[in-house]
Amino acid sequence: MSPYDIMYKFSEIIEKERIRQELRQSDLYTQAGISSSAYANFLKNKNTSFENIIKLLYTLNMSSNIEGLLMEQEYSSIDEIRSIKKRDSKKRVRK
Predict the structure, then answer these.
(1) What is the C-alpha to C-alpha distance for residues 40 and 46, in angstroms, rounded to an integer?
(2) What is the pLDDT of residues 39-74, one digit of tens each?
(3) Within a 10 A sphere around the Cβ of 65, how many other Cβ atoms?
(4) CATH number for 18
(5) Is 35 part of a structural domain of the chain?
């Protein structure tokens, strides 16, 4: 999936939710605190800052979508991470 594909998906999700909540585009970008040109650029060119995407998601009460991105695997130490990485790395086989 390319960065453009990801931005396209974000714009789709946000627009569907905006319509579901019966919000006008102007209501959404105003409540989110972003400019009309930034919102139009996001919809047309799939280009905006990550901060604007977060603002839009929060405005639409979709913050749980963000929380999933921020979940971390829990490790007890850096050594544990290194041992997992070493274990999972491919080893060369000599002939």
Answers:
(1) 9
(2) 999 999 999 999 999 999 999 999 877 776 666 677
(3) 16
(4) 1.10.260.40
(5) yes
Give dist(CA 62, CA 32) in Å, integer: 12
pLDDT of 33 higher than 80: yes
pLDDT at res. 85 = 72
Determine, yes or no, domain membership for 11. Answer: yes
Q: Look up the domain containing 47 and give its range.
A: 3-67
The residue assigned the tokens 């996001």 is: 42
**Dihedral through CA 34, CA 38, CA 20, CA 66, nearest 10?**
-70
Looking at residue 61, its pLDDT comes to 93
What pLDDT score does 78 carry? 80
List of residues 6+ apart from 35 with CB closer than 8 A: 29
